[in-house]
Amino acid sequence: MLESDSLRRTALLLVLIGLLWNVVEGGVALWAGARSGSVAILAFGLDSIIELLAGGVLIWRLWGGRSEMDAESAEAKSQQLLGLSFFLLAAYVVLHSGASLLGWLPEPRPSLAGAAIVAASAVVMAGLYVGKMRIAERMQSRSLRAEAMESLFCDLQDLTILVGLVLNGLLAWWWADPVAALFLVPLFVREGMENLSGHEEEDEGGAAKVCFCGGCFFGVRACGSACHAAQS
Predict the structure, then answer these.
(1) CA 66: distance to chain centroid?
(2) Residue 40 near residue 177, CB atoms below 8 Å
(3) More confident position, 3 or 119
(4) Could you give the percent of the chain with pLDDT greater than 90?
(5) I need a surface site. Which of 18, 75, 137, 186 has the fewest CB within 10 A?
(6) What is the pLDDT of residue 174?
(7) Residue 60, burial from CB neighbour count under 10 angstroms (0-12, 13-18, 19+)
(8) SS (H, E, C) 84-137
């Protein structure tokens, strides 16, 4: 019981750190995007709002789920809400990228401040992903894993935006950012479907677990029989 409370507090601290960082990165990104007229950086700032939603859901789950019955109910509800947030991320990327490629939105212009906050976000999100996944594995919390995966996907999105900003600044390839972002959409949809359904992929060895090891690419894919055997 004491270990469970300690894990919950640690998970809550990580989520709170993520929320505070999203406030900082969102504010800086919106300021930099407004000054440079960069739609990509403005999109990055708006994406932080969706991350704040996901983090708020996890705080509600970790703070409120005390009894076993309440914890299971909170886990199911938070999984569904996080699943919806993944679909919101996917829809946002499709709409933003499509509008940019069709010329309905202004071409993004280089911004040193924007590139700096995106690069810093990539480092922070990578660290939060590792920390959240380690706690999610010990708690076997799929909603915490979902929030960790959202940190990872945001990290990947940070990198694609950064590549787009660099290519735009050096080669004037304004289309590089929206094209790269579209490759993330299948990952968002997959995670959204898994969380809305309330379960992850299963294999012949039994129900999927929350796992953070090399056999499942450190939590990126569902835990398979190899991971089951290693943990038993």
Answers:
(1) 25
(2) yes
(3) 119
(4) 5
(5) 186
(6) 79
(7) middle
(8) HHHHHHHHHHHHHHHHHHCCCCCCCCCCHHHHHHHHHHHHHHHHHHHHHHHHHH
Gap between the Cα atoms of 185 and 86, Å rounded:
9
Q: Contact 192/87 with Cβ under 8 angstroms?
A: yes
Kindly report, residue by residue over 156-205, the tens digit of the pLDDT: 878 878 888 888 788 888 787 778 778 778 877 887 887 787 654 444 44
Q: Quick one: DSSP state of residue 198?
A: T
Q: Which of 98, 101, 79 is nearest to 196 (CA)?
A: 79
Instruction: Tokens 């704040």: give the residue.
Output: 52
pTM (two decimals): 0.69
Residues linked to residue 203 through DSSP beta bridges, in sequence order: 206
Backbone φ, ψ for residue 123 (5° rounding): -70, -45
How far, rounded to the nearest angstrom, does the alpha carbon of residue 128 sit from its chain's CA centroid? 10
**Beta pairing partners, 206:** 203
Q: What is the pLDDT of residue 217?
A: 58
Kindly list the distances between the CA atom of residue 164 and the CA atoms of 39, 123, 152, in Å, as whole numbers in the listed order: 12, 17, 18
Please report, to the nearest 10 degrees, the dihedral formed by the alpha carbons of residues 222, 80, 123, 221 taken in order: 10
pLDDT above 70: percentage of residues in the chain: 74
What does DSSP assign to residue 206?
B
Enter the tokens of residue 128: 């939060």
Res 72 pLDDT > 70: no
Q: Check: CB of residue 15 under 8 Å from CB of residue 62.
A: yes
d(CA 204, CA 79): 24
- Whether residue 108 contacts residue 35, with contact meaning beta carbons closer than 8 Å, is answered with no
